[in-house]
Specification:
Elements lengths: L11 H4 L3 H16 L14 H14 L5 H6 L4 H5 L6 H18 L3 H17 L13
Helix pairs in contact: 2-3, 2-6, 6-7
The chain binds protoporphyrin IX containing FE.
């Protein structure tokens, strides 16, 4: 039977194995971005390495890891930093699909998976700044 002394409290950052988890997650995420005709044109730099570094350090910091992002970029202010990109429901869904595929591939422990996916779902909708819907075909 579990007793209080068996309980261990760790941050999500620690629970998933630290920095290397976020490096691999972002690597896989950007592999999907690179193959996505909706997402890729949004990224302003043809070299995605700086964008990978920003997302990796941000996520590591958000989940209890080192504060490298704040030291390099200051306040995340993500809503403001996403204003230059038209993020409608379609873009949001493509971003989420790429991130879901990355989380699936990394396969973190179930508690961490739920926390990550809840956060990404909430944040991706929060960062949506456009209402444009797109329909294809005759229906
Ligand atoms: C869970 C939701 C999201 C998170 C946590 C997130 C996080 C970030 C971060 C940390 C940056 C770098 C900010 C900086 O320091 O300059 C960034 C940049 C960017 N994001 Fe997001 N983002 C999210 C959703 C989205 C969505 C839905 C889109 C569009 C489909 C998007 C497109 C971009 C683009 C184009 C950039 C610029 C690339 C760069 O130079 O870093 N993001 N995002």
């Amino acid at each position: 039977m579990a007793t209080d002394s068996d309980e261990v409290e760790v941050t999500l950052f620690e629970a998933v194995g630290g920095m290397s988890f976020f490096e691999r997650l972002v690597e896989v995420f950007y592999r999907h971005v690179q193959d996505d005709e909706i997402l890729l044109p949004l990224y302003p730099e043809s070299d995605l390495a700086p964008a990978k570094h920003r997302l990796t350090t941000f996520l590591a910091q958000y989940w209890g890891g080192p504060t490298t992002y704040a030291e390099e970029r200051g306040n995340p202010a993500l809503k403001m930093r996403h204003f230059p990109y038209a993020i409608g429901p379609v873009e949001r869904d493509h971003w989420m699909a790429a991130m879901r595929a990355a989380v699936d591939e990394l396969d973190p422990i179930p508690q961490a998976r739920v926390m990550l996916m809840d956060y990404f779902t909430m944040a991706a909708e929060h960062l949506r700044n456009d209402q444009t819907m797109r329909f294809t075909g005759s229906a």
